[in-house]
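Late entry, written up from scratch paper. The run itself happened at the end of the previous shift, but nothing got recorded in the book at the time, so transcribing now.
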Amino acid sequence: MTLGILVVDDEPDIEDLFRQRFRAELRRGELALHFATSGEEALKSLNTGLQPEAVLVLSDINMPGMSGLDFLRCLRAEAPHVPVIMVTAYGDTENRRRALDIGATELVTKPVDFVALKKLVQSVIVQKTAA
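Output as recorded:
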């Protein structure tokens, strides 16, 4: 079974970086990565249907237009069951508190430790699929 992850980030190199770091999982067919460069694009993609469906969202906080926190608020209203891990270069206490208060599952700081992120992604997916 292939599980979908939606990565929302305005940085142009993010897609290549995530595809490289999750290369083994992609090759084995365990994961499918979807990408959006804005909160607006991510909501549109989620509403029109991603295949395979996104069971987890990884979103940057600081993006032009709709911020990651605003995106999280919209997503919580539309799809409260989808876990969201916020990824940010600004892992200060205030951002962490706001993200968790809005409904983020966790907050990860950049530069991303992909070993730790993979473990976190795996634990969130296991919890979601067991529910």
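The first strand starts at residue 3 and ends at 8.
(Scratch paper discarded after transcription.)
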